[in-house]
Every structure is written in structure tokens, then in C-alpha cells.
Design brief:
Layout: H1 3-14, H2 18-38, H3 51-62, H4 72-75, H5 78-93, H6 95-105, H7 112-122, H8 130-160, H9 162-177, H10 198-213, H11 215-223, H12 232-256, H13 268-280, H14 297-309, H15 322-336, E1 342-344, E2 347-349, H16 351-378, H17 384-395, H18 410-445
Antiparallel strand pairs: 1-2
Helix pairs in contact: 2-3, 2-5, 2-7, 2-18, 3-5, 3-18, 5-6, 5-9, 6-7, 6-8, 8-9, 8-10, 9-10, 10-13, 11-12, 12-13, 12-14, 14-17, 15-16, 16-17, 16-18, 17-18
């Protein structure tokens, strides 16, 4: 590459917005992963899986979704599984976070442009202390995954032997903390064999919750500890997360208690564990301990609702995020109570935050509606229920499935690839774009205010 082409490339990168660079960066990681998985060495049979299957798997891994078109445990070779877990780690922590750590370890100076990119990647409000925060993300993630793997090894090593059991422990700890939902158990069974195993349910569920809280919130929990002294975001995340976990647990326990195809034949302890796990996993993790296709109608609908909400901002999970739903609920409550301001934990939620929350939900719903139409056209033999479930799972980067993913047509797989990609990056990039446009609007208008327009609502 000559100097002129290098200059053009640098000029192109320099003038891209952080949102655009994030999109191109994730796309590049997915493409590299897909090319590696296309190699014959990546499959257990020694035959290439084909580019589309490799591309789908790489997208699902980088977008920490967990939807698969081939069985992860039996189809891929050791090399293929290493590629997948690497893509999951990159996707979960964010390629900008890992790139920053590499630069820090190499002694490279982090520029303002780099800090703005990192800020957009981890969804923080300020670039102040951003490098220190990235170090916290990196090292805290490694510690949590290591502890999780250690506990899982107590189950997997006695069952599979030392080498395989240790590898399984590390793989599933990373997959759970990154909210990916990939498993190595084989035959698309996920963790159904451990439905009544307390340690597996507790460890995997705990990793999912920690990964889904968001690094800023876990930092508050670790360093501040007292709830009343935490940031407003941490308080809102913890309250909404706790409410959703309790809400999901109680309803799953009621809806599936007597269902012989899921929890009906389990002991009381088994039913409690299964209810707990199913309230945790739809929050973008993708593991399951009971057959999703055998759920009752109310449980299916509940799962869809939880998948739509997802995890929290700045986490390894997807969805429209807990704070988004929290802000919208608080806004509706303030309107019903006749209050002028939206208040949470003795703080006023500003107009821009409310507009961003509404925009993220509307855009997410628009994407879901479009993709449902696409799949209804490309998969005429599938039920509306299963298509809706699959699209919500892909959009929320969850990975739960009613078993239709491997049977999708080429068009159906491509539609889910787009849905997973937009679901992983969409809300963050859209919120960032909205904030940029608001700033531009203020600059253009200055101190002038346009006349009010009255529109009837409701």
C-alpha cells in the first residue's frame, strides 16, 4: 500500500464518527471470525461448514446472542470452539475495550479520539477516567470468569475428566458472563441435564446477572456498596433488575408448575431452580434448563417480554435495556399522577433522556416488526409464534430458540444475522446519534425557541 492510499485510509478513519467506527469494527471482527470458521480445520468432520453457516455463527458469537444453525458441541472442532469463545469474549467486552488494553500494555498513548470511541463503546457519559474504567472492565471480567470457571469445574471435572471438564468450565463461564448462551453439551440440549443442579444454576445464573448489570453498576457495588450513595443509574438498574427477576421467577413457577413437559415432574427444589434460571436467562443470556418449545403460552409470552427488555447499559447483554424501560415506566407514572417532572431517587430525569428512551424502544420495535415480516415471507411453513420468538431473541441478543434456527432458509438466516447485528449495536449507536443531533440543533438555533405546537394525544 503506497503512502497516498495510507493517507486516504487515515483520513477516512479520522473523519468517521465513533458510532460508525464501532459498526465497522464489529463488522470486521465478524468477517474475520467467519473466514476462520469457514476453514475445514474448524469443523469436527474436517469439511468446511460453508460461508453462510460460519458467518451466522460468527455474528451470533460477536453479538453475544447464542442462536446457532449447527450444534456447537458436536459440529465444531477444538480450533472452531476456540475461535467461537474468542469472538464471544471480544463481543462481550467490546473490541474497543480490548484494543485499549492492548495499547495500554504496549505503552501507547490514548488520544482524545480514542477516548471518544471508548466512551461510545462502553456507553459512559464522560471521557474522564475512561482508561482506568477500561482497566476495571478488563481485569474484573477476568476475575469473575475465573471464579465462575473454578466453581463450574467442581461439576464438570468429575463428569468429563480433568482436561475436558476444565475446558468446559472456562468456556461456559465466559459464555455466561458475556451473556452469549453458547454451550458445548451437544444435540442443542443447552443445560437441560442440569435443571436441578444447584451449583450449575447458581453459578451460571450469577454470571449472567453480573454480566448484565453493566460495568459501571458493578463498580458501584464493589467500591461504594451502600445503595443510598450509589449513582442514580446504579439504583435504577438494581431496582428494575431485581423486580424483573422476582417477577419472572414467580410467574414461571406458577405457569410451569404442573407442566409435565417442563417442570411438572421435578421436585420442589428443582422447580424453584428452574423458575429462577428461566427468569434470569431471557435477559439476553440464551441458556435454558427446560425445553423452550414445551413452555405454556403464558410462559412463552413472559419470555418474550423479558427478552425485549434485556440487560442494562454498558453491560455484556442486549435488549432495549432496563434503564430505558424504567424511564418510560416512570414517565407514564408521572403523567398519570399529574406531575410535571419525572423523578427517580430524588433526582429529576431530563427531557433528553426520556426522548432517547422512547426513541430506542420505538426503533427496536420497528426493527422487530420489519424482521417478522421478512421471516413470515421467507418461512411460510413456520408458525407466527415461533417466528416472533426467534426475532425477539435475535433482536435482544438472547439466543433462546424454539428450535427453528437450523431449519431457516438462506433469506431467514440473513435476516437474523442483520437482526443480531443491529440488536447488539443499534440502541447504543442510535442514542449516541440522537445526542449528537440534539447538540447540533442547539448550535443551529442558539438561544431562540420555536413556537409551541399543540397536538392531541390519546
Amino acid at each position: 500500500m503506497n503512502n497516498k492510499k495510507i493517507f486516504r485510509l487515515k483520513h477516512y478513519v479520522t473523519h468517521r464518527s465513533p458510532a460508525e467506527i464501532l459498526i465497522f469494527g464489529f463488522a470486521a471482527v465478524i468477517l474475520i471470525g467467519a473466514l476462520l470458521l469457514t476453514l475445514p480445520i474448524s469443523s469436527a468432520s474436517g469439511n468446511s461448514p460453508g460461508f453462510l453457516n460460519a458467518f451466522f455463527t460468527a455474528t451470533s458469537a460477536v453479538c453475544v446472542t447464542g442462536l446457532v444453525v449447527v450444534d456447537t458441541g458436536t459440529f465444531w472442532s477444538l480450533f472452531g470452539k476456540l475461535v467461537i469463545i474468542t469472538l464471544i469474549q471480544i463481543g462481550g467486552l467490546g473490541f474497543m475495550s480490548l484494543t485499549t488494553m492492548f495499547f495500554v500494555l504496549a505503552g501507547k498513548r490514548i488520544t482524545i479520539k480514542d477516548r471518544l470511541l471508548i466512551q461510545s463503546s462502553v456507553n459512559t457519559d464522560s471521557i474522564s477516567g475512561i482508561v482506568k474504567f477500561i482497566k476495571y472492565i478488563f481485569f474484573s471480567s477476568l476475575v469473575i470468569e475465573l471464579v465462575g470457571a473454578l466453581f463450574l469445574s467442581m461439576v464438570f471435572i468429575p463428569e468429563f475428566g480433568f482436561g475436558k471438564g476444565l475446558a468446559y468450565s472456562v468456556f461456559h463461564a465466559i459464555s455466561a458472563f458475556c451473556n452469549a448462551g453458547f454451550d458445548l453439551m451437544g444435540n442443542f440440549s443447552s443445560l437441560t441435564r442440569y435443571v436441578d443442579n444447584f451449583l450449575v444454576n447458581f453459578v451460571i445464573g450469577g454470571l449472567i446477572i453480573f454480566g448484565g448489570l453493566g460495568f459501571a453498576v458493578t463498580s458501584d457495588i464493589l467500591y461504594i456498596r451502600k445503595f443510598n450513595k450509589m449513582t442514580m443509574q446504579a439504583k435504577l438498574v438494581l431496582v428494575i433488575t431485581g423486580a424483573l427477576l422476582l417477577f419472572g421467577f414467580v410467574l414461571f413457577f406458577i405457569f410451569e408448575f404442573n407442566n409435565p413437559r417442563t417442570m411438572g415432574n421435578l421436585s420442589l427444589n428443582g422447580k424453584i431452580l428452574a423458575s429462577f434460571f428461566q427468569s434470569v436467562s431471557p435477559r439476553t443470556a440464551g441458556f435454558n434448563t427446560i425445553d423452550m418449545a414445551a413452555l405454556t403460552k403464558p410462559s412463552l409470552f413472559l419470555t418474550m417480554l423479558l427478552m425485549f427488555v434485556g440487560a442494562s447499559p454498558g453491560s455484556t447483554g442486549g435488549g432495549v435495556k432496563t434503564t430505558t424501560i424504567g424511564i418510560i415506566i416512570l414517565t407514564v407514572a408521572s403523567v398519570l399522577n399529574g406531575k410535571k417532572d419525572v423523578i427517580a431517587h430524588k433526582r429529576t430525569i431530563t427531557g433528553p433522556a426520556i426522548r432517547r428512551a422512547v426513541s430506542v424502544v420505538v426503533i427496536a420495535m420497528a426493527i422487530i416488526i420489519v424482521m417478522i415480516f421478512v421471516l413470515l415471507c421467507s418461512e411460510p411453513d413456520l408458525s407466527f409464534e415461533s417466528i416472533l420468538f426467534e426475532v425477539l431473541s435475535a433482536s435482544g441478543t438472547v439466543g433462546l430458540s424454539m428450535g427453528i434456527t437450523p431449519h431457516l432458509s438462506i433469506s431467514g438466516k440473513l435476516a437474523l444475522i442483520v437482526t443480531m447485528f443491529v440488536g447488539r449495536l443499534g440502541p447504543l449507536t442510535v442514542a449516541y446519534a440522537i445526542s449528537r443531533n440534539e447538540k447540533r440543533l442547539k448550535e443551529n438555533i442558539g438561544s431562540f425557541k420555536l413556537p409551541d405546537g399543540n397536538i392531541m394525544i390519546g
